[in-house]
Amino acid sequence: MSNFLLDLRQSLRSLLKSSGFVAVAILALGFGIAVNSAVFTLLNAVALRPLPVDSPSKLITIYQIMRGLRERRVHGDPSLFSLPEYVAYRDQSHVFSGLAAYANAQLTLGGDEPRPLTGDLVTCNFFEALTGHLSLGRGFSPNECATPGGAVVVVSERLWRHEFGADPQILGKPMVLNGKQFTIVGVAPPGFNGASLFASDVWAPLSMQAQWIPGPDFLNDANLSWLQLIGRLKPGFSLAEARADLAVIAKRIDQQNPPRTTILQLDRAALMNLPQGKTMVLGAGAVVLAAVSLVLLIACANLANLLIARAAARRKEIGIRLALGATRQRLVIQMLTESIVVSLAAGALGLFASWMTIRALFPIIIANLPAEAPTLALNLSPDLTILGYLVALSVLTGIGFGLLPALHATRIDLNWAVRESGALFGIHRSRIRSGLVAVQIAVCLVLLIAAGLLTRGLHAAHTIDPGFDMKNIVAATFDLGRQGYDRPRSAAFHRTLADRMSARGIEFAFVEPVPLSGNRFGMVITPEGRDQPVPIFFATVSPNYFRFLQIPIVAGTAFDAPNVAADSNATVVSESTARRLWPGENPIGKRFHFGRESTFKEVIGVAKDIRSTGLAQADDSFVYVPQGRDEYAEALLARNPGNGASAARAILDEAHSLDANVLVRATGLEQNLSLWEFAPRITATLGAVLGLAGLLLASIGIYGVVSHAVTQQTKEIGIRMSLGANPDDVLRMMMRQMMLPVAIGGIAGLILIASVSRILQTLLFGVSPVDPLIFGGVPLLLAGVAFLASYAPARRATRIDPMLALHHE
Asked: For the whole model, what pTM was predicted?
């Protein structure tokens, strides 16, 4: 400890004498650490930070992986549980003081202007297991949880304030959800938004499943995945003990459902708990952290070069310390202490900068999300995890840029050092500095090419032709299922709405799902004469759908042909589907089983490939099925030539005149493009910022290296010029010394980015991951910048007076 304190005092004194170096180092590192901190803060808030409840470390989430299943119905994710499975774990486990279950549901809040809410169906012990208390009122009684008539809810503190004006007399008052009246019996604690990434507005007992998730009975289905499990460990029990205890119960359940085998996954509870989602978030976070760390790597290489130059000025001091008995290890530790002190100061600056940036940008990002997007329950304030990560990152960064210069600064000949000879570090030091420049160039090239590819991809997303008309078309969806509409009532609603649209002179068509909405319907089909089913995507469309969206029929006919009956088994397939299923054959007249249907569907037409399930590529397996005579697809597409807004207004007016409680979402079909552009826009912006920062740091580094080389080679330059070398010879020598590591770094960067650029494929929308424009233009740009950064100090070398240079020491 005494040595550490001595090194710390010495480091502070030394750094105070080099305020310019310290300022440059802190700013360069601070930027890299700030970007790194911002990304980790988001990652921590989503997947690592404990829930905002008492003793969050005791909360455990449980998911299952089932193998050997003959059949399993899924609502949400295959890793979820059925209600009977939950009851078995709850009643037979010995490690939980409370084991609760919940399921997410999308709701419609009734009123003058219906609006969407996010809710959770929960077990009676949900609040007891998670929070232990409510701000107002109570949770749910056993009677309310046992019978479907227990129409009671607990609202979030956020909804209580925004929707009910923080009314202290809220208990016992009604609220309308999905067209049904519920009684408010409690208000959740402040900051509690449930156990999921998307903040819950309201909670109800599981017994209200039919009202909140219309459809079949979930409660008595033992073979349905729909519930997430979360439990609080009893004092003294560990995660490993809980895993062993529940594994015994899982084996009992498997014995009742042979040949099923269940593997349980237990983790500390966070906002993102689903295994598949957590893996995706952590994987994407790791990729982004790696990208932002490249800027930090460039900064470290720059500072390493600065430290090597700084060590040249301290060579006499280092030599005297060694001559007086200091060990090389002792000097290395002391120099590393200086580097770590600088890095920790940069870490503090980076933490503050990232926090202020996130506070400013996060509300803007949230405001640009679609209106129907649920609220994100993210806590982005610094916590111990973030502080620990930044301290570790700062220390590793300090070691990263300080170790190599410290090792080489202390590997010297004492006689030369004490006499202050310029040969202290010699050729070996020059090679190290050139190697660091090559590293900077390689990393900078990776960042710039990635940014260029993402920018090209974003431009392609703006200009890409999805294959169908989107101009002045409004897509409208209705929450009829939530309002309790059965199939006949839903068909009657759509039929009446269609009649009123026709009376207004508005063109329309029906489809489910809406193209490029992010929703996809999957199915398997089995072509006639084959046993192997083929997975496909499909859409249910009205007869005039292809004509309305101007999708060409390249073979056969569409559903609105005179000879096609409305209730026939006719289908239309995409070009790619026809080539895939019947290569070299005429697909018209081919038949296949659709799902489990016993009757055959027949292909009557082939539609041109379009991009309806995603913007990155055309649908490669897609089938269109017609809506029935007395049934309608859920979404209405309408076009009012020259005025899409009036079509949206007409849909809203007519739908609300039919049922004022129905939630209508009417948006321009072109706005669906923004859904696919959101991720490319964020990544392209981040890539551009990182690439430009890397370019700036690399340029500064190259300029500094050449300037230092000119200073160190002043005597050599003087000798060359005295022996007859002209200024152009000196300029070429200096430029050759600098451009060689630039070329080596450029080649290494090209090889690296070419091998990993396919990771960006889904964001490029038809742009090649080795796009020749980017792979050719960016290296030329970087070479030009490197040339300019080298030219000014190299040119200065040609103006050196040979006589003065010969006397330079």
From this structure: 0.78
